[in-house]
Amino acid sequence: MDSREPGDSNQPKAVCPPLSLYIHIPWCVRKCPYCDFNSHATTGAIPESAYLDALVEDLEQDLAFATGRPIETIFIGGGTPSLMSGDFYDRLIVHLRTKLNIATDAEITLEANPGTLETGRFEAFRKAGINRLSIGVQSFNSGHLKALGRIHDSEAAHRAISAARQAGFDNFNIDLMHGLPGQTPEQALEDLRTALDYQPPHLSWYQLTLEPNTEFYSRPPDLPDDDHLWDIYRQGSEFLHRQGFRDYEVSAWSRDGRASRHNLNYWTFGDYLALGAGAHGKISLADGSIRRYWKTRQPEAYLNRIGSRTAGTDIIAPEDLPLEFLMNALRLTEGVSERLFCERTGLPLSSVGVKLKTARDEKLLVKDRLQATALGQRYLNSLLERFL
């Protein structure tokens, strides 16, 4: 590790960050009208065996990035990963363990959606080696679920969480949205109260936004106005704090010590391999540069690709590194140390010294740490624009 102080104008040494693995499962039962992820509605049986073979081939191309580095966390996202069988994940994780150095305490998370889980599915996932779930409930109100285009109702949401608990999953996240069409502050609070009845260690609680290239963007629903949105957020935040939850990240809440390790690696500018159709990765290279790369997006093209499935790569220019780092780090409520900026970017803190001083003079950043103030959190996009 570099021994110079963060403010030293000499170039510091970049320190190799922790390494994670992201795996993308691109299929879902039906495309939700708000979803801008790489998800594709199924038109028949999912080609599990062919996709497993493609993932195995894909991994071979990226193994050099993991040489000598343990995998600290794995996140399987989608799409709807819970559409795949327990046998699929058993075979996949066995292969990963033969090819990669997966830490003995690795956090292995699977996204699971209610409505795609027949009896015994959670037990099979746990037996395969998955030790954390992220359950996409979105709301416990059946009317709101229908407005969101979800395939499950409130009863299915309750069944899914109960089944996960019965299968032995004590480390799980409940995914909830707020600011839904016609939602009142009391209804948003009721979703939170219902979720906490299951004693989850972690909640993702975020506002519905209208993203380009979605059905909701082209045909916007009637969403709560800004005053109602603020009331929902304020009342929900106060309730979660009273219940012992900490908002460690912009839209993530956890009990002490139960934050998502995988997400923390993203926000602290760690590295992550990418497998699967449309997956994105980030790798720190031996020459000190940092590469982002992404895989072939369309499932059929990914399955039929011969050779590398990497569709594109981009070396982050040194002048862009400060913004890239801060876009992640400032999502964290407690921010990060100034030293971490030097270790993860290889740049001296003096490279952004003037901009840091301006942000601190404007009361947007705290002193001696890369952490947004309450004002800076409220105007985070404006704060980040100072580092363009």
TrEMBL record:
Q: What is its subcellular localisation?
A: Cytoplasm
The family database entries (SUPFAM superfamilies) matched by this protein are listed as:
Radical SAM enzymes
- Cofactor(s) of this protein: [4Fe-4S] cluster
Its signal peptide is none
Q: Which GO terms describe its cellular component?
A: cytoplasm
The UniProt entry's GO biological process terms, in alphabetical order, are:
porphyrin-containing compound biosynthetic process
The source's domain of life comes to: Bacteria
UniProt keywords (A-Z) are:
4Fe-4S, Chaperone, Cytoplasm, Heme, Iron, Iron-sulfur, Metal-binding, S-adenosyl-L-methionine
Give residue ranges for domain Radical SAM core. Answer: 13-246
State the coiled-coil residue ranges. Answer: none
- Mention any Pfam family matching this sequence: HemN_C
Q: Which CDD domains match?
A: Radical_SAM (cd01335)
Q: Name one GO molecular function term.
A: 4 iron, 4 sulfur cluster binding
SMART domains assigned = Elp3
Q: Which family does it belong to?
A: Belongs to the anaerobic coproporphyrinogen-III oxidase family. HemW subfamily.
What does the UniProt function comment say about this protein? Probably acts as a heme chaperone, transferring heme to an unknown acceptor. Binds one molecule of heme per monomer, possibly covalently. Binds 1 [4Fe-4S] cluster. The cluster is coordinated with 3 cysteines and an exchangeable S-adenosyl-L-methionine.
NCBIfam families attached to this UniProt entry: hemN_rel
Name the chain's protein.
Answer: Heme chaperone HemW
* Source organism: Marinobacter guineae
